[in-house]
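User: For a benchmark we're assembling, each entry needs the component sequences followed by a predicted structure for the full assembly. Here are entry 17's components. Please fill in the structure.
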Amino acid sequence: MAQKPSIPKGTRDFSPEEVLKRNYIMETIRHEFKNFGFQPIETPSFENSATLMGKYGEEGDRLIFKILNSGDYLKKADKNAIKEMDSTALISSISEKALRYDLTVPFARYVVQHQNEIEFPFKRYQIQPVWRADRPQKGRFREFYQCDADVVGSKSLWQEVEFVQLYDAVFNSLNLKGVTIKINNRKVLSGFAEVIGAQDKLIDFTVALDKLDKIGEEAVKKEMLEKGISPEAIEKIQPIFNLNGNFSEKIEGISNILKSSKTGMAGIEELKFIQQAIQNMPLQTATLDLDVTLARGLNYYTGAIFEVAAPEGVKMGSIGGGGRYDDLTGIFGLKDMSGVGISFGLDRIYLVLEELCLFPDQIKASTKVLFINFGDRESLYAMKAVSKLRKEGIAAELFPDDAKMGKQMKYADKRDIPFTVLTGQEEMEQEKYTLKHMKSGEQDQLNFQELVDKLKS
Amino acid sequence: MAQKPSIPKGTRDFSPEEVLKRNYIMETIRHEFKNFGFQPIETPSFENSATLMGKYGEEGDRLIFKILNSGDYLKKADKNAIKEMDSTALISSISEKALRYDLTVPFARYVVQHQNEIEFPFKRYQIQPVWRADRPQKGRFREFYQCDADVVGSKSLWQEVEFVQLYDAVFNSLNLKGVTIKINNRKVLSGFAEVIGAQDKLIDFTVALDKLDKIGEEAVKKEMLEKGISPEAIEKIQPIFNLNGNFSEKIEGISNILKSSKTGMAGIEELKFIQQAIQNMPLQTATLDLDVTLARGLNYYTGAIFEVAAPEGVKMGSIGGGGRYDDLTGIFGLKDMSGVGISFGLDRIYLVLEELCLFPDQIKASTKVLFINFGDRESLYAMKAVSKLRKEGIAAELFPDDAKMGKQMKYADKRDIPFTVLTGQEEMEQEKYTLKHMKSGEQDQLNFQELVDKLKS
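Assistant: Structure for entry 17:
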């Protein structure tokens, strides 16, 4: 019995239309990456397990797909782990490779491994799939693409400015107007913790604060109290729950709270630098906004934190994010390499463009004209024209079999091919081509040059 | 201690230059695929093991990378296999997914699974990586890209004609002139076996014949004798060892041998059809040649067999191959779907283009101009120009730190950036930009529009 075919849960097949739409997004991003001077690298789909394990926390380790060693893998297996039937303990002796979990750790590994070939600051981009053994759910997959741009080897805040402009450029090119680029700074968050005397509870504090959007002020405060932050401390930072106004006004609002914290004020200076630069070089269609609740993977970031929200009215989580991390490559032995980078969420951007009908029509149109097949002799005549059209850059096809006319027409229709050409006895004798516009039904008898002109127009 | 970073054997990191060169090849192939009416699909990197196992023979099964189940995978492990320490027997109970081994089986699975959404004949292309646990060696990797185009759902020989034209179009676009597209037909090979009464030894016979190029006539005959093919039988097919002349002359030569074999003559008719069509529509820079020793994965192919050889003088195995297989989707329960397809060998094409210096120069040039950083005030002036240049489609960068001039110039030089711009106090006052051509050292003071014009020319 033949197997009924299926694919693993959390993975996807992409149809021609989906591939073309995804490529459109990726090509747009790639184009802007290049325009901004980023260079592409690619790394292997699987890395040595030692490269990945321990870099994403305990939960991350669990979600990394491990590859079974080839051959007689049990030969070197940890006998004790087998005896105890301890899955976790056994892994390292039967699996030494694992699928990439993100692009950041492989990038750090790449930088350290190739440090002598690289000119720093190194501006790289990378668009490749990653894999996570997460529980699949709507919009969450076990295989998905990441589109990352990072710079390592410079602490200049011009990088941050540039990433704000890059987000603006990409979303503008995608015709997705009105996104909000939210920015925050780890130093500002540290400053808050410092002024309320809760440095030791920085993570708890920011994890709670990060939820303000979703659960509201009261619930956030409740969570802070539960984590041992005093009511007096919360009172002290009350203004951050009601920050209003534009970027500058918000900055003013938090400056009052942070004035006693050197770290906090350093964060404010950074935010000001970025905002002023952007004010001097206005964004095309995006808006830069300060969001002091933004934390993301806080442990990671040391300076700027970015997140991009879809235009108002579109229900969607963030469609991009990033930030600065001061010691990206330290885990692989190369100290003092500050990095900053951003990422684009391909799958979510896809959904947003779909919802707003922003995919250009021409993406789908792959083949322009189908030649109807009337038999071998006519087909040779048709194929000669097809070949010449292709050399003119016009995507053309001959239906391969002399099936019934209706079937061939239906094929053109189903595939959204806008034109068909009929080449029967009469056309051959007169060296003509009968071009039919599928939608209007209009027909013209043309010579070859007229055919080219018509199809190109 | 930090780990010394490395990657698994048989895998590769790709530097910016390598990615750009690889993308150039893939984009050229993709462009012609589209021109010929092929549509892209993508399938997941890993499939259910049942989809892949048993499709590539015993050796293939061994070379498939298996993914360890997530979580407590030992819970469902085959206790008996563990007791016996039987690695092979244990696999299916601890691993249910495996990395794609080629693009053909996933394509067959896709066609069957999505048969109701597909218009047949279905012309699809697919450019994605595959993984094999082969012993790595020069030019053989554990992760590599395949670039495939296939048509399913038509037995028309126009497809074969089209694939010959497609090879010609791609290699011509890559400026790789003089490749030889070798063609053979499974039916011709069957015919040979039939006329010498060795139908039961078809595989042995063709495996030996396929080596003619490498080991020579005597060694091939010796191998045939060892496999139990009689000296009289070999005598009968002697002419195929000395086939000379052009395509038509070779056809004539084998027609004499095959005239008593219906199958063989059917193969000859197919070859003639393809050759005559190509004669009527001459190839641009490739040559079509008959090679009756060509077998490739014989078990697979039922009609045409293709292989592409690099231009004479370039030592390289085949840079492409393919053929017709009459029952592609039968393994997944969809009968009677004839398919024919070809593949491009990305890694080898890369090596050939490298050897013949055929990569266009402009591929490498990513960033066109670097603005030198003189400090924050000057940088804002520079960044404004950088932003505007990017909107003009000119890839521009600002060096992020106000490092020493020499260091910044060296950076431009190392990165092959052809121009730098200096924007000091004087330039700012006069709203000018000093453009320096890195190679000649020539400098010009320009206004913004002149700068754009110069950089675009």
